[in-house]
Amino acid sequence: MKNDKKILLATPHMSGLEMAYIREAFDTNWIAPLGPNVTGFEQELCAYTGASYADALSSGTAAIHMGLMYLGVGKGDVVFCPSLTFSASANPIIYQGATPVFIDSERESWNMSPQALEKAFDKYPHPKAIVVVNLYGQSADYDRIKAIADAHGVPILEDAAESLGATYKGKQTGTIGAVGIYSFNGNKIITTSGGGMLVANEKCVVDKVTFWATQAKENAPYYQHKEIGYNYRMSNVVAGIGRGQLKVLDQRIAKKKYIFEYYKEAFRDLDELEMMPIAPYGEPNYWLSCATINPECEVRPKALLDYLAAKNIEGRAIWKPMHLQPVFKGSPFFNHNPEEPSVSEDIFSRGLCLPSDTKMTDADLDRIATRINWFFGAASSRY
Ligand SMILES: Cc1ncc(COP(=O)(O)O)c(C=O)c1O
């Protein structure tokens, strides 16, 4: 088989509709922060997700930071956070001088384990907030998580950075917690080159976040500051990219699902590899197609990733759990089942992300599937 062009994990996929918004920003000289594209992007994202209010920010990380501040997280507080996630879910907890307590995953969705969450409450009954992540584009199990959170009166910050457009029991992810956030980073399902959005159902949330995100300038005839501010707002040019991207979000989700289903079918007879589970309660956006190598197989993900890299195909390791990260060494961690090895560690040790770029053709997908089948020595007549 020919080793032609490089296949990447997930790259920006412009629709062509973005330029009209960008051109308008240039034509009207509305380049600087704020402007009609920012307001338009916020309103259009609300219309898509059903959120009442939105605040376009410079990144998903900034949105988490602002969300935690709004929920009152400060020095000495405890915040629960899933361990199996990208570090940006947890870093803002530290920005606020609080302590992250990491929660293991459940097998059904790889997201926060309600069982481990309950155990964490036994030891830390008064966390200030719970960050819940919808990993790789799939919703966490909110009915179970919210029941526990509500029983303790603790708000949820929903990190939907990876899950824009995914649903939980028909409701858009990002709109389920007290505050939700999305990311438009370069590898996300839609991108603005970099950016984020905070959403909430109460106006007071976005009013306060807008205030902090624009340097906390008081309403006065001179520069007056009573609080520490941040420069976190999205620019009018960047928001124009977002408006064009949002128009094709449904197309991107459909293609991501197609990619996942393609892999599932291609590896149906492969005993060594299993696609990530899809929980019955929702519809993911299939941001990244992930898989695990079965425990009986001796092969480690790195060997498969190295093999694919040598064939010009980019995959990635699964997020390394936060409780294993040197920077979070010593942070408390609650195992899904203390009698068994941690679920997040197990997924990390056996999992990988397969190329999920929406610009891939069937020929690209066939090339990847063929290589993986060959790697496991399972070449059938089809491959
Ligand atoms: C789960 C998760 N949370 C937060 C972020 C941070 O978003 P951003 O890169 O826009 O700051 C990302 C992605 O980058 C993410 O995957």
Folded structure, characterized:
The protein has 383 residues and is α/β, with parallel strands linked by helices. The chain has two domains: 17-246, Aspartate Aminotransferase, domain 2 (3-Layer(aba) Sandwich); 249-381, Aspartate Aminotransferase, domain 1 (Alpha-Beta Complex). The protein is built from twelve helices and 15 strands. The protein has helices spanning 18-27, 36-49, 60-70, 91-95, 114-123, 142-152, 203-213, 236-246, 249-266, 301-310, 343-350, 362-375, and strands at 53-57, 78-82, 99-103, 129-133, 156-159, 167-168, 171-172, 179-183, 196-200, 273-275, 282-283, 289-293, 316-317, 333-334, 351-354. It has an eight-stranded mixed sheet with strand order 1-9-8-5-4-2-3-14, sandwiched between helices. A hairpin with a 2-residue loop joins strand 6 and strand 7 (171-172). Helix 1 (18-27) packs antiparallel against helix 8 and helix 5 (114-123) packs parallel to helix 6 (142-152). The radius of gyration is 21 Å and the shape is globular. The relative contact order is 0.18. Residues 378-383 have low confidence and may be disordered. Pyridoxal-5'-phosphate (PLP) binds next to helix 3. Pyridoxal-5'-phosphate binds at residues 59-61, 85-86, 88-89, 133, 159, 161-162, 183, 185, 196. It holds the Pfam family DegT_DnrJ_EryC1. It comes from Trichococcus shcherbakoviae subsp. psychrophilus. This is DegT/DnrJ/EryC1/StrS family aminotransferase. The active site is at residue 188. The modification N6-(pyridoxal phosphate)lysine is found at residue 188.
